[in-house]
Amino acid sequence: MASVLVLSAACTSPPSGPEQPVKGVEVLGTIPHDTSAFTQGLELVDGVLYEGTGLAGQSTLRRLDPATGEVRQQVELPSPLFGEGVTVVGDRIWQITWQNGIAIQRDRGTLEEVKRVTYDGEGWGLCRDGGRLVMSDGTEELRFRDPETFAETGRVTVRRNGIPLVRINELECVGGQVWANLWQLDEVVKIDPGTGDVLATVDLSSLRPADVPKDNVLNGIAAVPGTDEFLVTGKNWPTIFRVRLNAK
User: Environment class of residue 78 by beta-carbon count within 10 Å: exposed (0-12), middle (13-18) or buried (19+)?
Assistant: First the structure.
């Protein structure tokens, strides 16, 4: 584990409305990450780190060792499917696609496909919030879905300081809240899924490896069960960071 390092997350202007800014990010350690992985979804369940990767013809679903980053198992999505967010529901895993309008349900043990369903619009991020799924589509809306049928059950508009927030990407549901990457920004936000209000914003730009191209954006956030910690990474990044997002 790396030594603890506290990085500031300064706000450019004083917050207004319901948002309470996160004051910093505390780096607790690092894990190697496959630089060929165009990370779209990340989730840690029962000691297994599940990663969905994207790009047409290169999309995968993987099981990783969270201690070493080693890929233990992998299945490929057939072209032209472009993989996006993933989430575990019992003994199944849902994996959505970007512009294909297809969600794939897989067996959690084998990663083999169980069934497919279709949906309208784009698919970006996905997480499980109790008895429902939460899905982003690149707009200011989060969609709620049935965890078995994937049918839409509702929506909420996300607002930061009263302004609709777009480009909501990879999601992580934890403690009744939704943490989200913002596409092309090195930020994550904490969202109240009941109201759509952004409760906090944290700037993770200091985590960006020096040799990573700007286009390889921050993406991938997974809560570490039983802690207040997260694993975060980016597209084709060489490192997964173990962090605390509410450093004082």
Answer: exposed
